[in-house]
Amino acid sequence: MIRRRAELLERARALPPLSAAELAVLTDFLHARTGMRFGETKRYYIDRRVADRMAETRLSSFADYHALLRSEPGEVERLINSFTINETYFYREEHQLSCLSQFILPEIIRSKQPGEKIRIWSVPCSSGEEPYSIAIWLLENWALVDAYNVEIVGSDIDTDIIAEALEADYGSRAVMRLSPELINSYFAPSANGRFRLIQDLRESVTFTPCNITDPASVARQGRFDVIFCRNLLIYFDAAARMRCMEHLFASLVPGGYVCLGHSESMARISERFITRRFPQAIVYQRPEEL
């Protein structure tokens, strides 16, 4: 395995960087399939990942690799996986979790009976820290968590990272915001100082692949009461952001909520949502149907 990795690295280093025309072809290809826009400022990042995939597929010209992408969906998936950014940790943007339990869920259950389903969607879910954080937070901070059928779904375009989320084995950085009490309650020691989420928590979240720019892929997830879509729109251009918000709007039940990242806003993206300003966070609500 070590020898093979060294051979792949050597093969990738021997490949020339993409020309300006090749870079444009590749970035247009990625944008059409993911909504993410990469450009010349990300050249090193792009060249390195494309070279890795070309080395893996034993292709020496970009023309041949582009032809492979057009004919092999599996390679498209592997290329997209290599470009996704999955930096996160437990209890990131904790203020939104507090808003969820103190304000959003109490509003939602006004129109639900005990035992009814509440669906919460985390997209992108990365390696699982965000949807699992929702599960832990509700167990710790929402007294009515057992009175309703809470379903948490985590989705991502990166199928490799979904596999990691299902495994739920984390390093110390991922749990750095959790108290020792929470770690002891919800994790078991794993190899090399890592932490494995206990089985009950692993089973509390359903993971699915989803491309948020594809309406059919989004529609397959069903409709939700709350959607956490954080730190994704910053990678999209304006047109892709608008498409995504249209898809999320359609994925919400009337009266449902969207939580964006702290540096993101619905301004200049969509006027269909109501801006709700709670003490802990600004969130966006699909209007109730009349």
Please give a structural write-up.
The chain is α/β, with parallel strands linked by helices and 290 residues long. The chain has 2 domains: 82 residues, Chemotaxis Receptor Methyltransferase Cher, domain 1; 192 residues, Rossmann fold, CATH 3.40.50. It is 44% helix and 17% strand. The mean pLDDT is 89.
Walk me through the topology.
Layout: H1 2-13, H2 20-34, H3 43-56, H4 62-71, H5 73-83, H6 94-108, E1 117-122, H7 129-141, E2 149-156, H8 159-167, E3 169-170, H9 180-186, E4 187-189, E5 195-197, H10 199-202, E6 205-209, H11 215-219, E7 224-229, H12 238-251, E8 252-260, E9 274-277, E10 282-285
Parallel strand pairs: 1-2, 1-7, 2-6, 7-8
Antiparallel strand pairs: 3-5, 4-5, 8-10, 9-10
Helix pairs in contact: 1-3, 3-5, 4-5
Descriptive terms for the model:
290 residues; alpha/beta; Chemotaxis Receptor Methyltransferase Cher, domain 1; Rossmann fold; seven-stranded mixed beta sheet; 12 helices; 10 strands; globular
What's the mean pLDDT score? 89
Oligomer: single chain
Distance between the termini: 61 Å
The CATH class name of the largest domain reads Alpha Beta
| CATH topology type of the largest domain | Rossmann fold
Number of helices: 12
Relative strand content: 15-25%
What is the structure about, briefly put?
This protein has helices at residues 2-13, 20-34, 43-56, 62-71, 73-83, 94-108, 129-141, 159-167, 180-186, 199-202, 215-219, 238-251; strands at residues 117-122, 149-156, 169-170, 187-189, 195-197, 205-209, 224-229, 252-260, 274-277, 282-285. It is α/β, with parallel strands linked by helices and 290 residues long.
